[in-house]
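Notes from hallway chat w/ T.B., transcribed later so I don't forget. T.B. wanted the structure written out for a chain they're using in a teaching module, and asked if we could keep both sequence and C-alpha cells in one place. Agreed to drop them here.
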Amino acid sequence: MSGSRPGRLPVEIWSLIGAAFIVALGFGLVAPVLPQYARSFGVGVAAASAIVSAFALMRLVFAPVSGRLVQRLGERSVYLSGLLIVALSTGACALAQGYWQLIVLRSLGGIGSTMFTVSSLGLVIRMSPPGERGRVSGLWSTGFLAGSLGGPLVGGALAGLGLRMPFVIYAVALLVASAVVFWSLRGSELAAPEAPGEVRVLSLRQALRRPVYWTVLWSNFANGVAVFGVRTALVPLLVVEVLGESGGVAGVALTAFAAGNAVVLFVSGRLSDRWGRKPFLIAGTLVCAVGTVGLGLSSTLGWLLVASFVAGLGSGMFTPAQQATVADIIGPNRRGGTVLAGFQMAADLGTVLGPIVIGALAQRVSFGLGLTVTGALLVTAAIAWTAVPEPMRRRAVADPVAAAETR
C-alpha cells in the first residue's frame, strides 16, 4: 500500500469529473419539475410517478447491454454515445406533445444514462493511477454530489421560465459537456482503445468466482436500498407525517445528508489508497446504519437532521472505497464492462425494491421499524466485508489466479 503524496491527475480525468458534475446538476434541475410537467398532460399522480420509474427501470434493464457494449466498443465510444442520447432525449422532452411521448423519451434517457454510468466508471478506473483509485473515485463522486446539490438551487432560480425550459438547458449543457470530453479524450493515450489482440477482459463469470465481488455487489445493493431508495422515498414522508413539518423541511433533511457526505467523501477516498479499502467499507456502512436507524427514531427535527448528517458521513466513507474495490477486482490494463454493469445493477435493484418493501413495512407497522430494517441490511454488508481479504492487495502483487483467467 502506497503512502506517497498524491500526484497531479491527467486532464482527461478532470474532464470526466466535470462531466459528472454537469450530469448531476442537470438531473437535479429537471427532477423537481418532471412530475409537474407530466401532470400538465392531464394524467394522475400515479402516472406522473411512472415517469420517474420508467427512467430507473430502463437503467436496470439496459445495464447488461451497456456492459457488453463496453467490452466490444470500448469505454470512450459508449460514454460519448450515452451522453448524446441523454442530451437529445432530454431536449426532445421539451417538445413533447403528450404523456406517452414524454415517457418514451425519458425511457430513452434511462438507456443513455446507464451507458454513461457504466462506461464513465470504466474510464475512471482505466485512467486512474493504481495507487490513487480511491482518491479519483472520491473526486468523481464529489463531482456528482456537487452537481446534485446545485441542481435544485439552479432549478429554483429558473422556476419562472416554465416547465419546459429546464429540459432545454440540461440538453445544451450535456452537448457542451460531450464536446469538452470528446476534445480532451480524442488524442489521449490513456483513453485510446486497445488493439484487438491487446485487450484483456475480466468477464462477469470470472469476477463471480471471487468472494470480494459478491461482497461488493451485496454492499452496493444495500447502498441502493438505504441511500438511493429508502432515504429519498421515506424521509420526506417521515418529515411530514410523523414530525408534522412542511414539505420544504424534507429538503433540509436531504441537504443535511449531502453535507455529511461532502465532509468526508474526498478525504475517505484518498485515505483508502493508504490504509486499504476495508476500514472504510466496514466503518462507513456501520456509521450509515446508525444514522439510518436514528432517522426512524427521530422525534424532533433536530434529531432528524443530526441522524441525516451521520448517515451522510457513513455513505461518504464507503462510497469511494466501493468504487475503488471494483477497480481492484478488474485490475490494471483490463476491461470489465459486464463487471461494472453488475455493480451498477446491484444498486439499481436496491433502489427499485427498497422503497417498495421498506415503504410497505413503514405503512403497515411504523417508519421506525422500516428504517431499522434498512440499517440492519447495512450492518450485514459490514459483516460481509470482515470475511473477505483486503481488495487493494491485488494491485500490489501479481495475481496468478487473475492472470490465468484472462489467458
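Follow-up for T.B.: The mean pLDDT is 82. Might be a good example for the class.
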